Amino acid sequence: MNAGCEDRGDFTFGDTQGEADVQASGPCPKCNDTGQVSGGGQAYEIIPPRRPDPTLAELQADIKRWTIEKGWADDRSVGDLLMLMVSEVAEAYEEWRNHHEPNEVYVHAGKPEGIPIELADVVIRILSFCSTYDVDLQDAVLRKMAYNETRPHRHGGKRA
What do you get for the CA distance between the two ends of the chain, in Å? Predict the structure, then answer.
């Protein structure tokens, strides 16, 4: 979320030979955040993944390790963990309501924000849940996709 700031900062990420960087086109009009990191630089460092194209299982293992290291491996209920996934989707929706584009990533108070970042949080929550309960999500996705291939076009008669 925007930490209380509802105005856009017009910050975008650029990709330079596999390393993410940020170019700021102007400060946030409400909080005047320029996206600068300490030292006055205009770049916001994003740590690249440890390996290119990790599998879901590898991401799940990384997230499990990170969750333990950062102290987030607690005994929350299944319901609480599922609702935390929902809350991240709600945060993505709030980004949309605040006039951010679906592919827009910007920096606010030194933190990457936007719909893609909130969707990343959704995936992180899902993979954390799966690692906690030994769910092989990659297998589940492949099984579900295989089943969906057998279904007729727009099955169920429901509205889109």
Answer: 28
Query: Is residue 37 situated within a structural domain?
Result: no
Is the pLDDT assigned to residue 26 strictly greater than 70? no
Domain span at 101: 52-157
Report, as an integer, the average pLDDT of 37-66: 68
Say what the pLDDT of residue 47 is.
52
Tens-place pLDDT, residues 61-112: 999 999 999 998 888 999 999 999 999 999 999 999 999 999 999 888 889 9
Nearest-angstrom CA–CA distance, 40 and 43: 9
CA distances from 64 to 3, 59, 60, 80, 123 (A): 27, 8, 6, 17, 13
In contact, 49 and 29? CB cutoff 8 Å:
no
Residue 134 lies in a domain: yes
CATH number reported for the structural domain that contains residue 65 in this entry:
1.10.287.1080
The pTM of this model reads 0.68
Query: Does residue 99 belong to any structural domain of this protein?
Result: yes
How many domains does the chain divide into? 1
Paired strand residues for 24: 11
Q: How far is CA 49 from CA 40, 61, 111, 126, in A?
A: 25, 13, 17, 18
Closest among 95, 106, 99, 116 to 14, alpha carbons compared: 106
